[in-house]
Design a protein that fits this description.
Number of helices: 13
Radius of gyration: 28 Å
Structural class: alpha+beta
Helix content: 25-40%
Shape: globular
Strand content: 15-25%
Oligomer: single chain
Number of strands: 16
């Protein structure tokens, strides 16, 4: 373990009272209150009604503060990545501005210049997802406990950052079942759900934006595994693994109530596939199979929008993933088309047929397998048993897929001029997302038994994604 079990408190709703000044200008210091609601910081400073010095807060994207705390004064850094503005309150003395990032415990440089070696994150139900279910005796030394494997990411986000970063991903303090003389069958005693967290160790140290990308992509992995929301429960960053700072920022998870899940409701956990393998394959898949994983996780994570849009994206991603999964790359062999290209020229000679020949030559370029062939091969890749687990009829799904897809592609709508076909749209959206989820799992290298289990879970709890 590289971080202490107990990290500083993190809550999306809190407040800090103290003194504030733009970075590098401690003389421009004003009292004020910082309120944090759902991760967004809102600073209200009080300044004399006469004088313009306070308006420097409107120009500075980095603010430093010293706030009151139970253990004495704390340093705070505020960043505004959204280029907000300073509001002048009606009472004449208060001035308000929103900040996208609140870091408690240090006075840091500008957002782009400050770098961090470590970040730790915690999510809803991470303890359930990470749990070791094989009981261990209470009091077992940490070195004797089983631990999840570690993932290594080499040069992630290299299209966004010039530096080739190496990231080690560790799942710390997973929940465990322990036994003792009184609880022979086991119970959650010392290793509880709330202790679990994921730690990213980055070499060389990286800016906050890099760590936020790691957070978002891991949150997407959990969302995929849960087939439900995985709200952020805390984030900490720092250069010293034993002293990480609480970081408050807006979680992109849509505002809604989430319920607790059991591991039996998750399509894959480290119980079925080792943690290191899951993480490494997920990061690889995000690039190689774009947009399939994003289509699944964004739907579960953000506002789902119009049903037509959600369905169209699921259908398109399913068609697109055929290039990785299906066996047919072309409808006809290239040599067959070349032979017939020559025959066309002989059969339709002369200038009068030139437009017609050009039309046929253009059609020769459209050598993709038919939609029906692609859908048949995707179903074959899943297998008849798993389709039964999903409770999806092969022929009915293909027929409905093509009907809805053609309406969306050619008219932009799924409904007739009168009447309602919303039920068709709801059904094909749900079924296609279940099939696409299994195809993604297969591309991640999940072993066969785990894929069978995933199909059963998707078939048993379809309401979470429908």
């Amino acid at each position: 373990m590289i971080t202490p079990r107990l990290l500083p408190d993190w809550t999306p709703n809190t407040s800090f009272t103290g003194n504030w000044w733009p970075k590098g200008s401690p003389a421009l210091c004003y009292p004020g209150v910082l309120s944090v609601e759902r991760g967004l910081g809102r600073l209200t400073v009080t300044a004399p009604p006469i004088g313009q010095a306070v308006f420097a807060f409107g120009d500075a994207s980095t603010i430093h503060g010293s706030v009151d705390g139970e253990e004495g004064a704390k340093q705070v850094t505020l960043w505004d990545r959204a280029s907000g503005y300073l509001e002048h309150a009606s009472n004449g003395t208060d001035h308000v501005r929103n900040y996208t990032h609140v870091i408690v415990g240090a006075h840091l440089d500008e957002d782009a210049a400050a770098c961090f070696r470590y970040s730790a994150v915690s999510f809803h139900d991470l303890g359930v997802w990470s749990r070791f279910r094989q009981p261990v005796p209470e009091g077992t030394a940490d070195g004797d406990l089983p631990h999840h494997t570690v993932a290594t990411l080499n040069s992630p986000y290299q299209d966004m950052f010039d530096v080739p970063y190496t990231v080690t991903v560790t799942l710390e303090y997973p929940s465990r079942v322990e036994t003792n003389e009184r609880l022979q069958s086991g119970a959650m005693i010392n290793h509880r759900d709330q202790d679990a967290r994921v730690v990213f160790a980055v070499q060389p140290p990286a800016p906050a934006q890099f760590h936020e990308l790691l957070l978002q992509d891991f949150q997407a992995l959990l969302t995929f595994c849960y087939q439900s929301g995985a709200p952020l429960l805390g984030e900490w960053m720092g250069t010293d693994p034993t002293h990480l700072y609480p970081v408050y920022l807006r979680d992109t998870f849509r505002e809604r109530t989430v319920r607790r899940l059991g591991a039996c409701q998750m399509i894959v956990t480290p119980d079925q596939q080792q943690f290191g393998e899951l993480v490494e394959s997920w990061w690889k898949l995000l690039d190689e199979e774009f947009p399939a994983p994003q289509v699944i996780t964004t739907y579960l994570h953000l506002n789902r929008g119009l049903r037509e849009q959600s369905t169209a994206s699921a259908l398109a991603a399913t068609e697109n993933i055929h290039s990785s999964v299906g066996s047919s790359d072309q409808r006809f062999p290239p040599e067959f088309l070349n032979e017939n290209r020559a025959r066309v020229k002989v059969a339709f000679p002369g200038a009068d047929f030139a437009p017609f020949r050009e039309f046929l030559y253009e059609k020769f370029q459209e050598n993709r397998p038919t939609l029906d062939t692609r859908l048949q091969e995707l179903v074959e890749a899943i297998g008849s048993t798993r389709m039964e687990h999903l409770e999806i009829n092969r022929a009915d799904w293909i027929k409905l897929f093509k009907r809805v897809r053609n309406k969306l592609a050619h008219t932009g709508a799924h409904v007739p001029r009168r009447g309602d076909s919303g039920e068709d749209l709801k059904t094909i959206n749900a079924q296609t997302r279940a099939i696409l989820t299994l195809l993604i799992l297969a591309r991640m290298g999940i072993h066969e038994d785990a894929l069978d289990r995933s199909a059963l879970v998707l078939g048993r709890f379809p309401h979470r994604s429908w």
